[in-house]
Amino acid sequence: MDEENKLQFPSLPPCKEDLLDWAYPMRREMQEILPGLFLGPYSAAMKSKLSILERQEITHLVCVRQDIEANFIKPNFPHKFRYLVLDIADNPVENIIRYFPMTKEFIDGCLSLQRYSRPS
């Protein structure tokens, strides 16, 4: 690939959590991986965690589950948050790349709403 056709990506902005070291027990909590973007397990979005989600100003949630989990892993607050639910098989031949465009569009839409809703 020649120099002018090289892929370029913007630098990631610093995150307020950058100074914290990750510890194994934190795997059960949501982590801010970019400003305004959190990653966590299903347990981080359970009914008992509503106040934490509201305090962090969460507005959108991506729920990744297997088809067989659809009966017990469900959006807990469908009237409060926007959800993107992805049923993805947990196996090495699952083509997860096909979910990337819709997931990116969902996250980009959320982040652009956040930018416009913050006072300048």
Automatic annotation (TrEMBL):
A single BP term in Gene Ontology: regulation of ERK1 and ERK2 cascade
Coiled coil ranges: none
Signal peptide: none
A GO CC term attached to the entry: nucleoplasm
SUPFAM superfamilies: (Phosphotyrosine protein) phosphatases II
Molecular function per GO: F-box domain binding
InterPro entries: Prot-tyrosine_phosphatase-like, STYX-Interacting_Phosphatase
PANTHER family xrefs: SERINE/THREONINE/TYROSINE-INTERACTING PROTEIN (PTHR46588), SERINE_THREONINE_TYROSINE-INTERACTING PROTEIN (PTHR46588:SF1)
The protein, known as: Tyrosine-protein phosphatase domain-containing protein
Species: Oncorhynchus tshawytscha (Chinook salmon)
